[in-house]
Amino acid sequence: GQQVMQIPQYQHVQEGEDFTTYCNSSTTLSNIQWYKQRPGGHPVFLIQLVKSGEVKKQKRLTFQFGEAKKNSSLHITATQTTDVGTYFCAGAAAGGGADGLTFGKGTHLIIQP
Amino acid sequence: GAVVSQHPSRVICKSGTSVKIECRSLDFQATTMFWYRQFPKQSLMLMATSNEGSKATYEQGVEKDKFLINHASLTLSTLTVTSAHPEDSSFYICSALSGGPSTDTQYFGPGTRLTVL
Predict the structure, then answer these.
(1) Do A50 and B60 touch (CB under 8 A)?
(2) Which of A93, A112, B30, B53 is the residue whose CA sits 20 to 30 A from B24?
(3) Per-residue pLDDT of chain B (117 residues; tens, 9 = 90+)
């Protein structure tokens, strides 16, 4: 079945440093979604990427979808303590999101002041 | 954004009892809802897809007789963990699908933490 690999599993950064998490799917995706989960909380939708090579920005966050629609990345510029949490990518199979999402294992972002 | 609620948020039960978890889309209709399970510090694992008015589709390895899913209306799906055992203790999260078939966005409920003694 479809597998979504995400690295790194943990990332320690100093506040103000940049952070990137990478996602790679074993199959071509219809779309990829990114979620943030704070400790003790539930996943909160950040963004959805649909088009090949798509790049979207949300303030300090930059999301990219690969040309082959199999990989994606999330980059945070100048991290802040509020960025702490686990970032998950989730891929929708080529048939569309109606088949459910396959989540990566997540990247735990730890920020040292 | 769309709001999805889950009830209860926490439940503690004795081994052998059944627990029902409700998932509601509050401001939109969802023909499709999903149930995920999350172990501590791990990712979400899709358990089943719940479609309004039809039988749920279960992922491989998920026992349909143990995890009963009912999607009786466009705003409500329920997950019943039957004859719960300690290994069923987990964080159960539902999501509801909003949008067209090719650009779906899932909105997650706040989750239900189940502890089986």
Answers:
(1) no
(2) A93
(3) 678 999 999 999 999 999 999 999 998 888 889 999 988 777 888 899 988 888 899 998 999 999 999 998 989 999 999 999 999 999 999 998 876 544 467 788 889 999 999
